[in-house]
Amino acid sequence: MSATAVPQIFDPRRLALRRARALGSGNGFLEELMRAAVIDRLDDIVRSFDRALAIDLPVDEAASLSAQTGIAIATLEAGALLAGAELDEAPFPCILWPGGLDRIADVPGALVRCRQLLAPDGVLIGACWGDGSLATLRRTMFAADGDAPRARLHPQIDVRAIGDLLQRAGFALPVVDREPVTLRYRQLSDLIADLRGSALTNVLSGPVDSIGKSALARAEEAFGALRDEEAKVRETLVMIHFTGWRPDPSQPRPAVRGSAGRSLADALRKRD
């Protein structure tokens, strides 16, 4: 499917406005959590990198990460990535994508472009919020909208889908896993404030349906009904970690089917 044929379910201008508001809020701990997770995965790789490309990472955050890791980090917005932006520094030995893949309409195209920007045996390390996230908020908004449900939360990517997309994009040795992040809130407004602080509110295309007073009251009532013995409501976001390598002849390869010297049946009989 060509880039022009991909349905544009997200509004890039709205996303840019949400991010600008989030930067000024001082409450972006969810995004910070994701960036820290990507850095942890980078540290797990037994290889040093002198430079890397970071997707959708603010310039000041990139400078801080560069100072922390000693890696020269170039930055690129996802929109420019999909537009096929040419970078003088390419190819890169490493690409970091700490959040945002879940707000891209053309996920396959984005992953293909990342592979193209990597050097042979270069690695893509990323994370995004995935399937199973914000189940409590979805339930609350469903109660608020009543008989006229509206699209207020984004479609979500699951672990299997990302693994398949990495392979389809031409990545070798893909690794994908999920990590639930559990939060607890006394008020619905506190949850919304945290989502706004990390630009995780609605950036779907089309008009935004505002929540009237009666709908908000229903939402708060539904949220309050879920309080536990400590008067708090549990919400979960699911962080999906993904890693893939640009293919290179030096990488380990699976054995050819049928090349084993012994059959599994023979091995099991011997153990018996």
Tags for this entry?
21% strand; six-stranded mixed β-sheet; alpha/beta; 272 residues; Rossmann fold; globular; 6 strands
What does this structure look like?
This protein has 272 residues and is an alpha/beta fold. It has a single domain, classed as Vaccinia Virus protein VP39 (Rossmann fold, 3-Layer(aba) Sandwich). The chain is 40% helix and 21% strand. The chain has ten helices and six strands, in the order ααβαβαβαβααβααβα. The chain has a six-stranded mixed beta sheet, sandwiched between helices. Strand 3, helix 5 and strand 4 form a beta-alpha-beta unit. Helix 6 crosses helix 9. The protein is globular.
CATH H-tier superfamily:
Vaccinia Virus protein VP39
Poorly predicted runs are none
Q: What is the CATH architecture term?
A: 3-Layer(aba) Sandwich
CATH fold call = Rossmann fold
Write down the overall geometry.
globular
CATH class: Alpha Beta
The total domain count is 1
How many strand elements?
A: 6
Sheet bearing the most strands, described? 6 strands, mixed
Give me the secondary-structure category. Answer: alpha/beta
Radius of gyration: 22 Å
Helix proportion range: 25-40%
Q: What's the helix-strand series? A: HHEHEHEHEHHEHHEH
Give the strand order, joined by hyphens, for the main sheet.
2-1-3-4-6-5
The rounded distance between the terminal residues' Cα atoms is: 53 Å
Write the layout of secondary structure elements.
Layout: H1 12-25, H2 29-44, E1 51-55, H3 59-69, E2 72-76, H4 78-82, E3 92-98, H5 107-117, E4 118-129, H6 135-145, H7 159-168, E5 172-185, H8 188-197, H9 213-224, E6 233-245, H10 264-271
Parallel strand pairs: 1-2, 1-3, 3-4
Antiparallel strand pairs: 4-6, 5-6
